[in-house]
Design brief:
By secondary structure, the protein is α/β, with parallel strands linked by helices. It has 11 helices and 11 strands. The chain binds 5'-O-[(R)-(carboxyoxy)(hydroxy)phosphoryl]adenosine and zinc ion. The site of 5'-O-[(R)-(carboxyoxy)(hydroxy)phosphoryl]adenosine has 19 residues, from helix 6 and helix 7.
Length: 342
Amino acid sequence: MKILAIETSCDDTAIAVMQARGTSIKTLAQVTASQIPIHRRYGGVVPEVAARAHAETIIPTIKEVFAQLGLDPDRAMKKPPIDAIAVTSGPGLVTSLWVGVTTAKLLAREWDVPVFGVNHMVGHIYSSLVNQKLPEFPMLALIVSGGHTEIVWMKNPTSWKKIGSTRDDAAGEAFDKFGKVLGFSYPGGPEISRRAEKGNATAIQFPRPMINDGTYDFSFSGLKTSGRMWAEAQKKLTPKLIADGCASYQAAIVDVIITKTVRAIEQYKPKTVVLGGGVSANDALRNGLLARTKHIKGVKIHIPEKQYTTDNAAMIGAAAYFTKNKFKSSWRSLAANPAFEI
Ligand code: KG4
Ligand code: ZN
């Protein structure tokens, strides 16, 4: 079965064609058109600008993916070898979501194929399972993105229970805000992790909020304030100071996230742990999670390929397939749901 997957929840117009068979799904072709250069001049995503860019880009991007498959793009737009469409229906920016959802509705009607309205966070949960077989359940998912920091418990592929989430800012937001203070362009997360490579992670003792409070919830707004106060207190931010600041700030975020996840693994005893979300591109988080779970027996840790960490369409196709008919909709009733909770 071939699935056309569409993701436009924020600032990436992402399209993929996935091949699903039995208990696995793989990417046949994909293109992600990033709007980061467009939003950079505003220091963050501007919803109206994002929606217009999605509207201009979505059909050319679908055609590009068809061309990657060796199809004639114009002919494929009329009747492609596609069995289903999966689209992110929420959560996200409503104007951005509508572009993907409307396109999916029109194409599902035109091509007479089923359409799935997929939850973006469930997409991130399945991102490490693209090009993999469905693993053993129960599963624990750690999702760390620009808008969410969540630990989710899954007894089976279609049941999810949030056992912890952020009470204020998400981890990605905490990275981006510190990046802004240091003068990095949007989004600051990747630049912080680059600078951190040359820094000393124990140079500055940033707070580790809620690390030992016994819950699986997170709070990063206090850390964000500490980061800003530290930067403002420096006479001159030399490259060495910036590297140390980035390494120490990153260490605080990663330490809190991993400490809570390890505790959740010990309490819930899952067979599988999956990591996902834009911040899962961070090497300190990826390597730290592997290192600090090595001693735990009977659990397999799945880390997404780097290309599936930030928003992409392959994970939306994977989520639609692995959750069977949970997200099945119809071209008539499918709608964007910006506050879509899992
Ligand atoms: O999942 P995502 O692409 O979008 C949302 O659904 O939010 O996540 C984007 C977030 C941004 O905050 C970005 O700074 C962060 O992921 N990010 C990183 C890294 N790469 C992306 N944060 C830390 N280290 C990285 N290497
Ligand atoms: Zn995302």
